[in-house]
């Protein structure tokens, strides 16, 4: 739903009606000469502190830009529903999407060219090229990053101690993870290693785990078109590992068909020893759900010989249906909320102080969206307000400088993940699952998806 930030209920209702009718891409209001933009990224009402900070930022932005009216949306991105909304002009002006989505959105011409507006930003030249490569096509800029991430191992330090493991030396290989998971399950009665396999998460994790073994999910052929490349040993090793942990060790617990939110709830409650996610992104949700910061551990992504990890980002783009005035307003908002706090030390310190006062996490180690030099300046500026146990992220932080970052599939990534979910689910729920046959079937499905996407 769309929410007003600081208007009374009657006014909020009116805004909702207008937004629904004009698809959040309404042009200038004739009576006020204001440009209204609806923006994704508003925190849910249940996260009161984060929502309050968002509302404060909106108020500050509108005060500095009196001709722009910002309406927040807490509706998360969903590729299936937003495809229709974008095509019909019913999407927010500023859309917030995972890094897997820009190629298809650009191809379908559903997002705007913001080259002129973005290139005028003081921070533009220092943006991380690893992320910007996905947002620029033929020298045309189609989006800007909000945050980037890399897969890592999240673990419960308390369960490690109870199981006789050293929480300051988490496992670094898949063999070590298997051993630790079995020990946690046997010593504590909790789930040693948590897994997810629905809502595209099974394919997502299979991809990330495959990268650690040196594999890929798709590759370009001689004709330049992509084909499936996962029916090989690196992916087979992942599936065999799952089979061992599930059926030989009984370390995966009972729920094989959950999604990330389900596993986060169990982890927060202290019922799961380890699982794979993006540790910096997960931490604020963990704390908001009542998790104990002292128990949170973030380690390097376990490896199978490749020293690599899946990397991605959350990016902000502008609907192609937005008017020129809205496009300019949208980029101003993106610069104000997403870029400045990661670029300007003074702004970073200001928001860090406010966040710390409200009990929000400050100082979570992240994969920078700007240069390393800029990141260090910001970290120095916020150092007085850091309230995160940074030492608990030591293994993860160290890996950011050592590992190779491998991007998610460049074509139809979410569709590929969805096609791989049944493969993962079968291995986790059927003791007699035939891995080779499952891989061959999944290869055919993914190649069909790729063929259709590259016509």
From TrEMBL:
| Signal peptide (from-to) | 1-23
Q: Does the keyword Nucleotide-binding apply?
A: no
* Sorted UniProt keywords: Signal
Q: Which InterPro entries match?
A: Bact_solute-bd_prot1, SBP
The yes or no answer to whether the keyword Transport is present is no
Q: Which domain of life is it from?
A: Bacteria
Give the Gene3D superfamilies listed for this entry: Periplasmic binding protein-like II
Annotated protein name in UniProt: ABC transporter substrate-binding protein
Organism classification: Bacteria, Bacillati, Actinomycetota, Actinomycetes, Micromonosporales
């Amino acid at each position: 739903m769309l929410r007003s930030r600081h208007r009374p209920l009657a006014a909020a209702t009116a805004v909702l009606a207008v937004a629904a009718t004009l698809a959040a891409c309404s042009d200038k209001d004739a009576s006020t000469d204001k440009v209204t933009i609806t923006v994704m990224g508003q925190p849910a009402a249940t996260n009161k502190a984060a929502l309050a900070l968002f509302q404060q930022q909106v108020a500050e932005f509108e005060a500095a830009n009196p001709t722009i009216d910002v309406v927040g949306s807490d509706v998360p991105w969903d590729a299936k529903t937003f495809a229709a909304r974008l095509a019909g002009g019913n999407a927010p002006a500023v859309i917030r999407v995972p890094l897997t989505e820009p190629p298809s959105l650009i191809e379908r011409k559903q997002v705007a060219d913001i080259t002129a507006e973005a290139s005028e930003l003081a921070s533009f030249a220092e943006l991380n090229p690893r992320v910007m490569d996905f947002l620029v096509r033929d020298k045309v800029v189609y989006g800007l990053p909000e945050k980037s991430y890399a897969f890592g191992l999240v673990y419960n330090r308390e369960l490690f101690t109870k199981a006789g493991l050293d929480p300051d030396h988490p496992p670094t290989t898949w063999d070590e993870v298997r051993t630790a998971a079995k020990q946690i399950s046997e010593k504590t009665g909790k789930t040693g290693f948590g897994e997810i396999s629905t809502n595209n998460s099974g394919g997502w994790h299979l991809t990330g785990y495959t990268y650690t073994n040196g594999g890929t999910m798709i590759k370009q052929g001689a004709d330049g078109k992509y084909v499936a490349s996962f029916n090989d040993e690196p992916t087979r090793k992942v599936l065999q590992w799952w089979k061992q942990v599930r059926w030989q060790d009984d370390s995966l617990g009972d729920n094989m068909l959950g999604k990330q939110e389900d596993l986060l709830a169990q982890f927060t409650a202290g019922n799961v020893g380890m699982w794979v996610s993006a540790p910096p992104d997960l931490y604020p949700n963990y704390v908001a759900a009542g998790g104990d910061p002292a128990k949170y551990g973030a380690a390097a992504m376990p490896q199978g010989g490749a020293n690599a990890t899946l990397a991605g980002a959350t990016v902000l783009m502008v609907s192609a249906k937005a008017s020129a005035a809205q496009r300019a307003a949208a980029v101003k908002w993106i610069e104000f909320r997403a870029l400045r706090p990661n670029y300007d030390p003074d702004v970073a310190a200001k928001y860090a102080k406010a966040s710390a006062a409200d009990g929000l996490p400050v100082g979570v180690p992240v994969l920078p969206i700007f240069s390393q030099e800029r990141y260090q300046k910001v970290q120095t500026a916020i150092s007085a307000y850091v309230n995160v146990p940074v030492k608990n992220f030591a293994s993860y932080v160290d890996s950011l400088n050592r590992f190779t970052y491998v991007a998610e599939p460049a074509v139809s990534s979410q569709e590929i993940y969805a096609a791989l979910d049944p493969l993962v689910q079968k291995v986790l729920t059927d003791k007699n699952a035939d891995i080779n046959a499952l891989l061959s079937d999944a290869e055919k499905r993914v190649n069909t998806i790729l063929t259709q996407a590259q016509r």
